[in-house]
Amino acid sequence: MSTLEPGRGTHVVTMRDVAKAAGVSVATVSNVINDKPGARIGDEARQRVHNAVAELAYRPNMLAKTLSQGTSRFIGLVADAIATTPFAGQIIHGAQDEAWKNGYVLLVANTDGNQAAEDEAIAMMLEHQVQGILYSTWYHREITVPPMLQQTDAVLVDCFASGSGLASVVPDEEQGGRSATEGLLAAGHRRIAFINTTTPSPAQSGRLAGYRAALDAAGIDFDESLVFLATPEQEGGFVSTTDIIASGASAVFCHNDRVAMGLYDGLREKGLRIPEDMAVMGFDNQDVIAAHLRPPLSTVALPHYELGAAGVRMLLGLESSSGAVPTLIACPPILRHSI
């Protein structure tokens, strides 16, 4: 890639541009520009940085000054896909609001699950002397902690790593499953089916445990024949329709809103009405689905905004956390007109 000419185009020259032109790291550029005491940089490398600065007409900014002091008012957030996931993007929103409230700015890197991009993002944030990094996934699962994350304070958001010692904040899947089932019980239903996912995950086991706990508290025996496994997509709900009807259930708790949307289609095709003939409860509160189905879908919300906000509070030491077990955030029920 050719170097930029002074004043050419509208591109703002960054330290990364200077580092590439000089053949050194961003940290080296920062140390040279700020004349950092004790930095071990050879004369040749130092001269290359000065030459690149002159050639590119680079102008140090406030970030460079911040780096020279060894501290910053930045918090990093490295995500695998949440920036492009409509409902999970609320994690960024919550983290950003909480960071801003406490005088920090959020630096966000979306890696699309690419390992090389993830390593580069974490390295960039370490170079920017972030106060710490939130590491987030777009769905709740156990992860292997990237080794570079151990170089700074870090909190896992919507994921966890057993034995890592890192604090984590995740949805309370069991409580969410219990709340979903309690909503159907409160509407007078006693024979309640559950469409669960085929994919092993904290959501699969937690929501089933919550379903069973709610039935038990209501004095209803658990009936394994009322638990149906389906892919966690619209098609999974649609193909489950015939078996749901045959089960004699009067209400269905669906693993997520997409499954519920498919069940809506299947029930409509069979000439059945919601909620008169079958009550339906979803999970996720994916607004583009739940609020716009007819009738609007009752569901349980994944607390993405609060996950992001709580992650920042933990990182800043404003909220206690444990590296031994994840901190659980409640999943609130959103009652509409499908039950």
Automatic annotation (TrEMBL):
<keyword id="KW-0678">Repressor</keyword>
<dbReference type="Pfam" id="PF13377">
    <property type="entry name" value="Peripla_BP_3"/>
</dbReference>
<dbReference type="InterPro" id="IPR046335">
    <property type="entry name" value="LacI/GalR-like_sensor"/>
</dbReference>
<dbReference type="InterPro" id="IPR010982">
    <property type="entry name" value="Lambda_DNA-bd_dom_sf"/>
</dbReference>
<dbReference type="Pfam" id="PF00356">
    <property type="entry name" value="LacI"/>
</dbReference>
<keyword id="KW-0804">Transcription</keyword>
<dbReference type="InterPro" id="IPR000843">
    <property type="entry name" value="HTH_LacI"/>
</dbReference>
<keyword id="KW-0238">DNA-binding</keyword>
<protein>
    <submittedName>
        <fullName>LacI family transcriptional regulator</fullName>
    </submittedName>
</protein>
<keyword id="KW-0805">Transcription regulation</keyword>
<feature type="domain" description="HTH lacI-type">
    <location>
        <begin position="13"/>
        <end position="69"/>
    </location>
</feature>
<dbReference type="InterPro" id="IPR028082">
    <property type="entry name" value="Peripla_BP_I"/>
</dbReference>
